[in-house]
Amino acid sequence: MPEPRQAARLWGHEAAVQRFEESWQSGRLHHAWLISGPAGVGKATLAFHLARKLLGGSDLNSPAGRRISAGTHGDLLEIARKIDPRKGRLKGEITVAEVQPVQTFLHHTATEGGWRVVIVDGVESLNRFAANALLKILEEPPPKAVLFLTTSAPGALLPTLRSRCRPLMLSGLDEQAMRALIPDISADLLRRAHGSPGRALFLAQDRDGLCAGLVEQVMAGTAMDSEMWERVKQIAREGEGFALFCDLFSEALATQARDAAMEGNSLQAAEWAERVRQLAQLRQQTERFNLDKAEALREALALAP
């Protein structure tokens, strides 16, 4: 799949596009939009799709379209987690220093005389200082400026930040769109991806079923032994192993919570939901502070039945 900045077409999310266009055509376009939805469902792609509309770059072969694709358009600024050059991986958070250029950018005259657009991809990754800096910008937006904020965890944002944005909530794509985007997707991956192309590609990285197998073992109540511990350490060494395990384990725990709720056992459902919350917190802290992933996985396994 192409990068969001370079996508020639947006698959799905017609209702979100329509809502934005209605606001634009009314002459009262809101200055900030919060695009939320499952990871990998196309939030950043939608943000760039809407930015192209505002900046006259919907045709990728037009001068504006080519500049957006190349990341050189003077009226478009993207803020996202950056690669840590020392560790060769994404940083755990977006800092205030990375948000400060937004203020300068928005108070300069548009280079092409139209809109200025800012995309903050993964706004839940803003640390406290960065979130407060962005909030000040949202409180006093300059004219002819639009911000698109994307998040997979809207509940983790400051309530005051959410309240200053118009929501665009995205759901999963249908099967036709999924197969168009990933022609060779298997029936199993299609089922497990829940309409998220990014999730399908993410899950496909567990090629030998190492993470899925460990989740199955721990959910079955298998006690930790030396063989399982070696598997944990192997997963921790894989590039996306830790994230994959946490994702699959969280889904298994959430399924238990849903099943308990459907059976009318609210107490047990709450207990499972609390385990999901604890796992999410453990994953976030481990990735943000670059903690030992093998030890974090050992801690995660304690949340199993």
Outline the structure in words:
This protein has 305 residues and is an alpha/beta fold. The protein contains 14 helices and 7 strands. Helices cover 52% and strands 10% of the residues. The strands form 2 sheets. A 5-stranded parallel β-sheet has the order 2-5-6-1-7, sandwiched between helices. The longest helix is centred in the C-terminal third of the chain and has 23 residues. The radius of gyration is 21 Å and the shape is globular.
Compose a concise summary of this entry.
With 305 residues, the protein is an alpha/beta fold. 52% of the residues lie in helices and 10% in strands.
Task: Write the topology of this structure.
Blueprint: H1 14-25, E1 32-36, H2 43-55, H3 63-70, E2 76-79, E3 83-84, E4 89-90, H4 96-106, E5 116-121, H5 128-139, E6 145-151, H6 159-163, E7 166-169, H7 175-181, H8 187-193, H9 197-203, H10 210-219, H11 226-237, H12 241-262, H13 266-288, H14 293-301
Parallel strand pairs: 1-6, 1-7, 2-5, 5-6
Antiparallel strand pairs: 3-4
Helix pairs in contact: 4-5, 8-9, 10-12, 11-14, 12-13, 13-14
